[in-house]
Amino acid sequence: MIPLRKNIQQMAGYVPGFQPPDEAAWIKLNTNENPYPPSPKVVAAILAELGGDGGNLRKYPDAASRAGRVAAGKLYGFDPSWVIMANGSDELLNNLIRAFAGEEEEIAFVHPSYTYYATLAEIQGARVRTFGLTEKWELADFPARYEGKLFFLVNPNAPLGFTYPLEFIENLAQRCAGMLVVDEAYADFADENALALVKKYENVVVTRTFSKSYCLAGMRLGLAVARPEVIAALDKIRDHYNLDRLAQAAATAALEDQAYFAECVRKIRETRAWFTGELRVLGYGVIPSRANFVFATPPDRNGKRVYDGLYQRKILVRHFSDPLLAEGLRISIGTREEMERTIEALREIG
Ligand code: PMP
Q1: Where does the Aminotransferase class I/classII large domain lie (predicted)?
Q2: Does residue 270 belong to any structural domain of this protein?
Q3: Burial class (CB in 10 A: 0-12, 13-18, 19+), 62
Q4: Diameter of the chain measured on Cα atoms
Q5: Residue 1 within any structural domain of the chain
Q6: Ligand 1: does its nearest atom lie under 6 Å from the Cβ of 88?
């Protein structure tokens, strides 16, 4: 037998959302991708970086991804020393655990939220604690002082889509002895974010992704905003060339084209409102969403039945086997036309 570390032997590994081989034949609403293409300026920047003969690819990229840090710093009102660019925000979540939680040390997150935190903790050999949610979307049994090394809070919550009030997040920052990571993968679709708390509390880190609001899931891009000491630690442990040249060009152009970004977010929010209303007409329970997906429960509370019906019609949504979530479905917001077809399908399924 190969001499694997025990926790790697035992772990199951993360299962990403299903990717059908004939993607174009499906309405794909299962991994919260953006239905629109990225900004034309992003495409132009990628092509310019590629150049006529691809000669730039011969050379290593900027190891520090400086242009992206400068663009993000300018956009969010931080010195670039407070920003790090990453190969998807997943890379940041991984490196935060590696930087702050050693073997047998504890990390925590809300249940339900992003299950990848648990996988990353398993790889590291860190222990996991979860806190459930009350009916008012507050944390059940959260101690006056939480002594774990890291606490991950997804805001807006995924897969449920609601947001925690900022005062609540600030209170958490005060109660966490370790780091509070606010995973803002979906915050661009909401009204508020926790960036101001990064300036106020040394233990707050905000992570963002380009996969949702910037229509760039295929480029693998994320960023974090935190104190320079935190950024320096993350810089020590990342792959030294973590972003390739095309991704760096795309990131900077995407951050700089705020007009395109705003229009894209506006369309998603508009479609989200329409889709939520239509679901309710069909008798679905829908949690008001501030993300680019909704969590919806059919009248018979049988998420799997509806998932199967949609699947037969080549509409892919997310059904979770977790008993807390199995009654409902997480449905990404696509184009208006895709959502109209989804409503028609749901009407047929009944
Ligand atoms: N956090 C949450 C809550 C997510 O849903 C996702 C996307 N699955 C990520 C982080 C990772 O995003 P990225 O594509 O930037 O790695």
Answers
A1: 26-346
A2: yes
A3: middle
A4: 60
A5: no
A6: yes
